[in-house]
Fold:
Amino acid sequence: MLFMEQLIGFFGSKEMDAFIAQWGLLLNGAFVSLQIFVLTLLFSLPLGLFVALGRMSAKKWLSKPLEIYILIMRGTPLLLQIMFIYFAPYYIFGKSYYGRFAAVIIAFSINYAAYFAEIYRGGIESIPHGQYEAASVLGFTKFQAFTRIILPQVIKRIIPAVGNEVITLVKDTALANIIGVSELFRVTKNETNRTATVTAFFYAGIIYLALNWIVTKILNSLEKKFGYYK
Structure:
């Protein structure tokens, strides 16, 4: 009876109001992180495929610049790239042409596109060349052979590697706080400083874990969907 009275008292107390308010702030931050995550994948996945195909081109004027691009993107920290993309226009041209959020999306997209490009390239090159020849004999154009025969097999083979990058992306969204984007990690730091406790970090950990659990489930479903490609 005493426990129930204490529980009822908690739900009607200032502590409960503060708890709800804090979760509201964290969920708002998580929504911004989710926007960064979704938009990054939306731009970087197709861009990575085009970069991979260009990287594999026999034309040096196309493949060499893309090789350098991949080297730069994978060889420098994403944190540095975010800061460069956000601050460079101001210091070079004297004005900014986009806001913090746009700078984050640009930086994340071109960074992850480089990683996805190498994953795509590895998957495409793992397909035996005889399949292209067989498709040609059957009357498929190069585009039809790639989209209908090669690409589904490539997707099946690269899902685990892409999955690792996607899960990393969920956590990398925290880097957006470096230029003041109010994503989950920045909100968590602000709440920790305000309340002088680490409770917000614990709640943020739960949210990140839940997001990665959802991503993992989606990736597992995709693996099963493409399971008939051996």
